[in-house]
Amino acid sequence: MPHPFRFGVQVGSLPADRWQESARHIEALGYSSIFLPDHFGKQWDPTTALAGIAAVTERLRVGALVYDVDYRHPVVFAKQAATLHLMSGGRHEFGLGAGWMESDYIEAGIPYDPPGVRISRLEEALRIITSMWDNEHTDFEGDHYRIRRIARATEMEGAGRPKILIGGGGKRLLTLAGRYADIVGINPKMVEGRITAETPADSRPEQVRKKVAWVRAGAEASGRDPEAIELNSLTFVVAITDDPEPLRAAIGRNSGMSADEVADCPLFLTGSASEIRDRLEKRREDTGISYIVIQGGDEAVLESFAKEVVGPLSGR
């Protein structure tokens, strides 16, 4: 039985003079969630923003897509996530990743360790965080963190614990996600530490299927049911149009993909509303991806996508 469709919105910030109304509008349009990325620069701090958004909405789930494990200590992550989950009435989706954007590290003076080191640190952090949600006290000693009888993050009472969302593009990270995550984002690899012209090609349909298989293998190896994991994709371009070919051709020229591959790539949703709906349903059948997050910022796009795609597919 496939997971029902859900749709979210990612924003770097909201209009400062009407952020409350903007958040409520996204909720009213039928989106399930709102996410902020975790980067430096002019974007809003996700933790602060998500608490505010949760306070002025009723159903909208809130999360980071995704927090960088190197920007905060896991004890801090555990406490802030538990507090936000409790105060939002159980609406926090806790996204955590190994970090990828090299410019963030350079600007902040944080050592940019090799991917394997960062992934090892992520796994240790997940063990600490989940223990702090579940146990009265946590002790941990690893290669990166040492915890001495730290108290439970907070009592979350009837809210349960936050769903864990892990996004990634490589085999090791996606296998790890299969062991720990409730939601897994199927992303392209960004081993260069930045998005390049070649990045989208790692989300070709055959690559997506391979990545999903890694998640499932990780789940099965740890005794989890892979069907229980909700699979997510982040879309960067939405264009509802009856003539998508020029856009697909342009994206293909820049990425090294054919127009057909662009049309079937989760990073891009192009075509008529009925074609987009059909492709999402077929992709869910082929890969299990049911949780679609699109970029915010253009209200007209959010509204048309909500009317033509979110409304017809949500919950199906």
Description:
- This protein is α/β, with parallel strands linked by helices and 316 residues long.
- The chain has one domain: TIM Barrel (Alpha-Beta Barrel), CATH 3.20.20.
- Helices cover 43% and strands 20% of the residues.
- It has eleven helices and 13 strands.
- The chain has helices spanning 19-28, 46-56, 74-87, 102-108, 115-134, 171-180, 205-221, 245-255, 259-263, 273-287, 299-313, and strands at residues 6-10, 33-36, 61-64, 67-68, 92-97, 137-141, 146-151, 163-168, 183-186, 230-234, 237-240, 268-271, 289-295.
- The strands form three sheets. An eight-stranded parallel barrel has the order 1-2-3-5-8-9-10-13, surrounded by seven helices. It has a two-stranded antiparallel sheet with strand order 6-7. The chain has a two-stranded parallel ribbon with strand order 11-12.
- Strand 9, helix 7 and strand 10 (230-234) form a beta-alpha-beta unit.
- Helix 6 packs across helix 7.
- The longest helix has 20 residues, at 115-134.
- The radius of gyration is 19 Å and the shape is globular.
- The termini are close together.
- The mean pLDDT is 96.
